[in-house]
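User: structure tokens for this one?
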Amino acid sequence: MDTADIELLKKTTDAAARLRAAVATKVVGQADVVELMLTALFARGHALLVGVPGLAKTLLVSTLAEALGLTFGRVQFTPDLLPADITGTDVFQEDEAGKRRLSFLAGPIFHHLVLADEINRTPPKTQAALLQAMQERRVTVGASTHSLPDPFLVFATRNPIEQEGTYPLPEAQLDRFLLEIHLDYPSENEERSIARKTTSAETSTVPQVLSADEVRAILGLIPRVPVTEEAVELAVRLGRMTRPSTEDAPEDVRSFVRFGAGPRGSQALVIAAKARAVLRGEAAADIEDIFALAVPVLRHRMVLSYRAEAEGKRDDELVHAIVEAAKKSRR
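Assistant:
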């Protein structure tokens, strides 16, 4: 990193502190969730938000967009949603001369931050349209390809309780999410604050912390952040330990996992670790960052067996077992 990068690193760390405060003007609690959302944002990665209704998932994303000076779009996924309802479509329009021309009418995906609400409620054909946008950051409609705004990130939500009328997300799409972030119930004190704040006449304004250009500069910085060789080796090892055929996979992985994370898992660990290091004000990512992000990066990349489902084994438990095995081997 050169002098300009070091200066940008300092500004980014300061901006991150102000971003946390800005989100807190609207959202009570959820500090760990906000931290992971900022990690995904700075790493230019998509995130899957998993939690029961009423935990401020929509508010979190819209507030973050306000604080960043970015546009926000929301798509409510339903079983009858079509790809064109997300991406947009070609329509005939008359110009001033009365001639009809085919022009592109952009869909709600053409925003910087897009909330894909209850993403598992739409059929595979519509999910595939979103998958192209997530991977390529562009959409194809008819014979034309349209680039999405820069930056473009998807924050998708999934309700872990209600499964009636839902479609399982394809593994290829799950793998495109950098992080799977779980939201829990607020504490008793936080819930009191929520009850007071949301039922009063007072309104709070979210301060804009960064401009879109400043956000793009930060996103360009993250890949240039150094990472220790030890951290890269650990990221690769953790990813490989999710695969039951690997020699040093824990016994639980051999018993309860059908397929482990692919190479995108270790890639995600490294880039997310770089973003976390910047949020901490560090000039390089190390093994602490890798261990801290192992669960949200790897849990959704494993395919569990029927035995795991029958015995109530969760992906979180298995990743924790992998992390503990890796830590024990380092002692």
